[in-house]
Amino acid sequence: MDIRTKGFGKRTLVKDALEILLSCTKITGTEKILFERGLGRVLAETIIAPIDVPPFDRAAMDGYAVKAENTFGASQGNPIYFKLIGEVSTGINSKLKINDFEAVKIMTGAALPKGANAVVMFEYTNELEDEVEVFKAVTPGKNVSFKGEDVKKGVVLLRKRGIIRPQDIAMLAAVGRQKIKVYKKPRAAIISTGDELAEPGEKLGAGKIYDANSYALAALVQASGGIAKRIGIIEDSPEKIRSAINIALSSDVILISGATSVGKKDIVPQVVAELGEILVHGVAMRPGEPTGFGIINKKLVFMLPGYPVAAIVAFETFVRPALQKMQGMEIRSPCQQVQARLKRKIASELGRRDFVRVKLERKGKEYLAEPIRTTGSGIISSLVRADGFVTVPENTEGIEKGEKVVVNLFRI
Amino acid sequence: MDIRTKGFGKRTLVKDALEILLSCTKITGTEKILFERGLGRVLAETIIAPIDVPPFDRAAMDGYAVKAENTFGASQGNPIYFKLIGEVSTGINSKLKINDFEAVKIMTGAALPKGANAVVMFEYTNELEDEVEVFKAVTPGKNVSFKGEDVKKGVVLLRKRGIIRPQDIAMLAAVGRQKIKVYKKPRAAIISTGDELAEPGEKLGAGKIYDANSYALAALVQASGGIAKRIGIIEDSPEKIRSAINIALSSDVILISGATSVGKKDIVPQVVAELGEILVHGVAMRPGEPTGFGIINKKLVFMLPGYPVAAIVAFETFVRPALQKMQGMEIRSPCQQVQARLKRKIASELGRRDFVRVKLERKGKEYLAEPIRTTGSGIISSLVRADGFVTVPENTEGIEKGEKVVVNLFRI
Fold first, then answer.
1. What number is the ipTM of this complex?
2. N or C: which end of chain A has fewer CB within 10 A?
3. Percent of chain B with pLDDT strictly greater than 90
4. Which secondary-structure segment (H or E) carries B77?
5. Which class for B156: exposed (0-12), middle (13-18), buried (19 or more C-beta within 10 A)?
6. CA angle at residue B362 from B357 to B367, to 5 degrees?
């Protein structure tokens, strides 16, 4: 009997495996892009405001620009009269200057004339031939948006490592910044191994199944901010896997699914060990025990289980954090979490981290989480039916019915 | 004094405006795409399984396929002997058939030979010349994944209107489905109006500011699953706005920002009323009061405020739900929510819905939400500093310090 059919001699704890993985995961690099293409990208520079925003004092309301001090005492019964000396529209470089008891008609967003420090709104005024009656006093600064009020030239606008949101794009536009430095999206090459695999769309021969993993992994790479490249289905032969890896090495990271357990045909670890170095193989988790990773030519190579559910759980546990680190992100759970009460007991094993798919239902003010019954980690429909998963930590043998659990919700 | 400088005579409640909006928002249409491009798209058909998954009974472990009944009574001290009649690898169409006390060597994923109903794992066996010693009894079905165990031909796999997740892509692949029908992504044309606007990258003339809105709106459209097309900056002239709208009408929906209040230059509502019909103009919300929308040539036209923060809040309140409905989605908040305690009182006005930007900080086990001090809805940096917003409903005059609030977190 072959030693390799005996199961994993030693399984690495999830925490330890993750520490080893991240210690050898490096940022992929940076690139300059147009700011308007930056949504969801990670800044590789701290952005300093190159100008004041707004760049000049401007009217925040339609009305008359005046010296506020001249309006003091004005009321409905006791209007104060201002000489109307002109009008400023938006976008105009006006040379108008105000003296005492002079007014300039002004539109929201237009530059405040020199000498003015407030705007009286139209509704508290009455325009006569070349005079304006003002019925209400305004304080200095009233209805004015001062130069630099939003952002002062030289301040930090956006911090390095921040993920760019729509409002950050507004901010970059507002200071006129065109190109920004961001971290590159990691390119992930994806290989599915297995003599039994066929491409969706092909006719399915006897003994064959369609390849689900490489498509699921490509979607997960995309959802993690990476660029997926499917190398395709590769037969369970060391030569073919070796040459597929050699092609894949032009990417930043390689994901191989299947043939990574300890059976006769589980030749991926052999080939990876031969071309580079295996760092971890066999993790104390379920599903996903055969997961491993190594380094070939300084590139990370993930060995992911052939069973689709196990491959997806292994991706979320290891590949996503690595992709996040490669693009300069903080490593964080991508999941929204909700509290729920367990509807049925979950059994587990001491020393192993279990990921249990659950379906949520609302009951009054709280959620119930029902563990999905499944016959194994090959059952894709169990993930399709699930709303999220519950993690059972290593230091427990399970979770009792009725206990409170945190559910990590799936999202796209 | 022009009547249009007087403010909104009547403001529509957010709830009512949303009801009017959604009653005239229609699904954009459907298209067929490759399943592997489906991540995040909305299914426009219910997918029925065209085949069983797995499509045949297969081994779930490496070992020997046998009739389980023949192993009953086997133990370490009392092995049962099976005649080894062959081997089945994965992907092979084997014609092997098992009789009583015959065994076939089999790999995980390989088709179970006829007559067999269980697999004994290698570790409970010992292979001799043409015999196998079996040391452990197995029950029928042990280590076998039966045909249709994951999915039975004819069952509902994925429901119409569901958003496609990575595991759904795995499911589509597993049944060999190539093309799927999804709702079209709505194309949104974006117009920024204002004589004061300049393009980022241009030199900023006196009295000019950079156009932030059209870029923020484009990012928000993208984040809502739509396709954004910037028409660009248009001067505050009825003719130019009219011809920009005519160009924009080739898209599915039009967003115009600026010139939508009730001042002298607020000509967008005039032009929209002239080309089509205004449904709502002026909403009881803050920021975002000048928001409106109408219909031109059966296309929705949004009139969004010129102030960036107001434009973004108006987008989240009205445009995003409309885009969701246009692409067949359930209408739902895009936000993750957290509970927090208010760090400072928020004042509001009865009859108006307020959206208050807040910054979160952790304090022990709970979050504190600090309302961001700002001088108005032009202050983009207030949104950049914010982690999310708190909604103050119409039926209250504010929220007291220390009260519990729900914070809608920004995400991308």
1. 0.93
2. N
3. 88
4. none
5. exposed
6. 60
Helix ranges, A122-177 (H): 166-174
Rounded Cα distance between B392 and B403, Å, is 12
Contact state of B412 with A109 under an 8 Å Cβ cutoff: no
- Residues contacting residue B243 through CB under 8 Å, at least 6 positions apart: none
| Residue B171 to residue A379, Cβ atoms within 8 A | no
Q: Which of B270, B292, B326 is the last residue of a domain?
A: B326
Based on the fold, state whether residues A131 and A85 are members of the same structural domain. Answer: yes
Please check whether residues B154 and B172 belong to one and the same domain.
Answer: yes
* % of chain A with per-residue pLDDT over 70: 96
A95 assigned to some structural domain = yes
Its domain, for residue B319, covers 3-29+184-326
Enumerate the β-bridge partners of residue A367: A362
Helices then strands (H, E): number in chain A? 8, 28
A23 is a domain residue: yes
Which positions of chain B have pLDDT values less than 70? 1-7, 261-265, 333-335, 412
What is the residue-wise DSSP string for A207-228? T-EE--HHHHHHHHHHHTT-EE
Q: For residue A360, what are its two tokens?
A: 């949520």
Does residue B223 lie in a domain region? Answer: yes
Q: Does B200 touch chain A (CB under 8 A)?
A: yes
Residue B277, chain A, CB below 8 Å: the answer is no
The answer on pLDDT for A174 being more than 50 is: yes
CA distance A71 to A85: 17
pLDDT at residue A256 is higher than 70: yes
B171 closest CB neighbour out of A175, A336, A384:
A384
Which chain B residues touch A143 with a CB distance below 8 Å? none
Spatial distance between the Cα atoms of B205 and B153, rounded to a whole number of angstroms: 67
Candidates B34, B84, B90, B144, partner chain A, best to mutate (most A CBs within 10 A): B90
Query: Mind telling me how many Å the CA of B335 is from chain A's nearest CA?
Result: 10
Decide if pLDDT at A226 tops 80. yes
Pick from A160, A183, A206: which residue ends a domain? A183
Cβ contact (<8 Å) for B91 and A197? yes
Question: Which of B167, B198, B383 is opposite residue A383, by nearest beta carbon?
Answer: B167
d(CA A11, CA B97): 38
Contacts of B265 in chain A (CB under 8 A): 89-90, 107
Token duo for residue B219: 């990012």
Q: Given CB atoms, is A172 within the 8 Å cutoff of chain B?
A: yes
Identify the pLDDT of residue A247. 97
Residues A139 and A170 in one domain: no
The predicted model scores a pTM of 0.93
Query: Which candidate in A1, A84, A152, A209 is best for mutational testing of the B interface (most B CBs within 10 A)?
Result: A209
The reply to whether B76 and B140 lie within a common domain is: yes
Which token pair is A33?
Answer: 């892009």
Q: Alpha-carbon distance A288 to A266, whole Å? A: 15
Same domain, yes or no: B179 and B195: no
C-alpha A324 chain-centroid distance: 9
| pLDDT for A335 | 63
Best B1, B37, B209, B240 residue to mutate vs chain A (most A CBs within 10 Å): B209
Rounded to a whole number of angstroms, the distance from the CA of B6 to the nearest CA of chain A is: 6
Tell the residue number behind the tokens 């490759």, with chain if given.
B34
CA–CA separation, B203 vs A139, rounded Å? 34
Confirm if A199 and A233 have CB atoms less than 8 A apart. Answer: yes
Is pLDDT of A262 > 80?
A: no
**Residue A131 and residue A258 in one domain:** no
Instruction: Tell me if chain A has a CB within 8 Å of the CB of B131.
Output: no
Give the ranges where B202-237 is alpha helix by DSSP (H): 213-223
Residue A36: its chain B contacts at CB < 8 A? 215, 218-219
> Does the pLDDT of residue A6 top 50, yes or no?
no
Interface contact B333, partner A, CB < 8 A: no
